[in-house]
Amino acid sequence: MMTKKTLWPFPVRNGQPVKPEPTQDGASTVVMHVTFQVEATPVGKGRPKFARRGNFVSTYTPTKTRDYEDLIREAAKQAMGNAEPLKTPVAAYIYITVPIPQSYSKKRSNACLDGLERPCKKPDCDNILKAYFDAMNKIVYDDDSQVVEIYAKKVYGTIGMVEVLIKEALV
Predict the structure, then answer these.
(1) Backbone angles phi and psi of 120, in degrees to 5
(2) Contact 47/29 with Cβ under 8 angstroms?
(3) How far is CA 129 from CA 40, 72, 85, in A?
(4) What pLDDT, in 10s, does the model give residues 120-155?
């Protein structure tokens, strides 16, 4: 079985990023970051639904999407603690693990775990990212327009989960 690779831009020990090294002039660059994970099968952002109520049409988010975004918000709030949302440009590193379908044979399942087969099925990676970016608004950052770099990877795993790292994208 292949070991899991991550996209984190700096080394991690015991689940925590390693302290930044001092620069040549002796100063240390501190970059604000937040990491969290949601242990649930990833759900893509659903299209808005429309309902006619008398002479009016109202728009609403599908229940499945709303419930999943609530899970994301709770994990993000817990990771942020009492910290204020970031005001600077940010980079998003998102590692998506989708569960292997139960209908796959043992041989095919092992190929998925070894990275020989990639999940080219729904939910789409971009729809999952939309759900995360929208859910993190006003919690991790003020608005998802602050996201200037995106690194995402979708792989198969034994359980569904999404690992998230949001860090300041300073020049």
Answers:
(1) -100, 35
(2) no
(3) 15, 11, 19
(4) 999 999 999 999 999 999 999 999 999 999 999 999
